[in-house]
């Protein structure tokens, strides 16, 4: 494999020979990430809580000649996370190049109505699992053979830095996940482990299938591209961040969304210009 920052273009944009663990790969964004990483040549292990669904995915990936193994794991349970990492260690002979902390759950509920159980379930699934899996993966990532070192990708959300009413607990978990990205990137750079995040906007998956279409339309209209994303559009960004091509990138929490912040800035600039000209503001 290429040395960081060197190597041919083919080597820099390839994951041939790499090994990866992607949590929550049976559906949505995780499913697309598994296919994209495996398509670039990585051997991938993935998990979710539903054995039948996982087996169906595994069968379809085998038909496509993608090298993917699966096991059941509820990432909110500490003992199951430990068992998952032991499976990964055995499957990949003690070496891991990539960990993608993708499994997550959304809760749309006014903050005043959230129970202690809601809070604890989301914190454990979306945040604690990513922290603990990163700890467990560290000894394997240190042996990564991919140029640029091992990689952790945390799938955060634009909701972790912009406030949407009704998703306070989810937002707290994603905001903290982005901070986890920055801190681990700083602590583990000497171990040649890069840690980055992706923060998607709305992506068409089961997670948002019950969101009111009118609300979605309104939210999308606030962005320059004006539409929701597709899972593969997030998977492309994740794959890039894991490649030797991204060997100089760590601690970043990249928004992967249709330009919401810039549209807001553009509106503010327009309003300020109106004010300067003496118009109503
Ligand atoms: N869709 C969006 O608009 C959007 C936007 C920003 C960020 N994100 C983030 O992207 C990630 C993936 O979301 P998605 O939209 O692809 O959701 P999804 O379609 O609901 O898929 C979630 C995946 O995670 C698994 N999962 C959920 N809880 C789990 C647990 N406790 N243990 C193990 N696996 C679990 C699910 O399988 P089982 O349920 O069978 O376990 C499934 O494979 C999440 O972290 C989410 O917060 C999504």
TrEMBL record:
Residues 260-281 have a biased composition (Basic residues). The keyword Oxidoreductase applies. Residues 18-211 form the Ketoreductase domain. GO terms for molecular function: oxidoreductase activity. InterPro entries: KR_dom (IPR057326), NAD(P)-bd_dom_sf (IPR036291), Sc_DH/Rdtase_CS (IPR020904), SDR_fam (IPR002347), TR (IPR045000). Residues 252-281 are annotated as: Disordered. Keywords: NADP, Oxidoreductase. SUPFAM superfamilies: NAD(P)-binding Rossmann-fold domains (SSF51735). It holds the Pfam family adh_short_C2. PANTHER family: TROPINONE REDUCTASE. This is Ketoreductase domain-containing protein. It comes from Aegilops tauschii subsp. strangulata (Goatgrass).
């Amino acid at each position: 494999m290429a040395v960081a920052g060197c190597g041919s273009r083919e080597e820099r944009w390839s994951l041939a020979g790499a090994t990866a663990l992607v949590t929550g790969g049976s559906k949505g964004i995780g499913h697309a990430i598994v296919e994209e990483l495996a398509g670039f040549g990585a051997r991938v292990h993935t998990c979710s809580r539903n054995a039948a669904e996982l087996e169906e995915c595994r069968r379809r990936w085998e038909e496509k000649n993608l090298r993917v193994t699966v096991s059941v794991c509820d990432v909110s349970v500490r003992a199951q996370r430990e068992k998952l990492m032991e499976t990964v260690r055995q499957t990949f002979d003690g070496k891991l190049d990539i960990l993608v902390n993708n499994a997550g759950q959304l809760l749309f509920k006014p903050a005043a109505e959230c129970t202690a159980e809601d809070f604890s379930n989301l914190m454990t699934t979306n945040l604690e699992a990513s922290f603990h899996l990163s700890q467990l993966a560290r000894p394997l990532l240190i042996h990564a053979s991919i140029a640029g070192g091992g990689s952790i990708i945390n799938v955060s959300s634009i909701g972790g830095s912009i406030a949407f009413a009704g998703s306070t607990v989810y937002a707290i978990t994603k905001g903290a996940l982005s901070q986890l990205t920055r801190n681990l990137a700083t602590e583990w750079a000497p171990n040649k482990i890069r840690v980055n995040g992706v923060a998607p906007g709305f992506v068409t998956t089961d997670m948002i299938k019950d969101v009111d279409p009118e609300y979605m339309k309104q939210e999308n209209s606030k962005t320059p591209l004006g539409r929701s994303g597709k899972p593969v559009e997030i998977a492309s960004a994740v794959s890039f961040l894991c490649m030797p091509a991204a060997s100089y990138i760590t601690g970043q929490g990249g928004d992967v969304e249709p330009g919401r912040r810039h549209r807001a800035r553009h509106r503010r600039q327009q309003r300020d210009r109106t004010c300067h000209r003496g118009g109503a503001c």
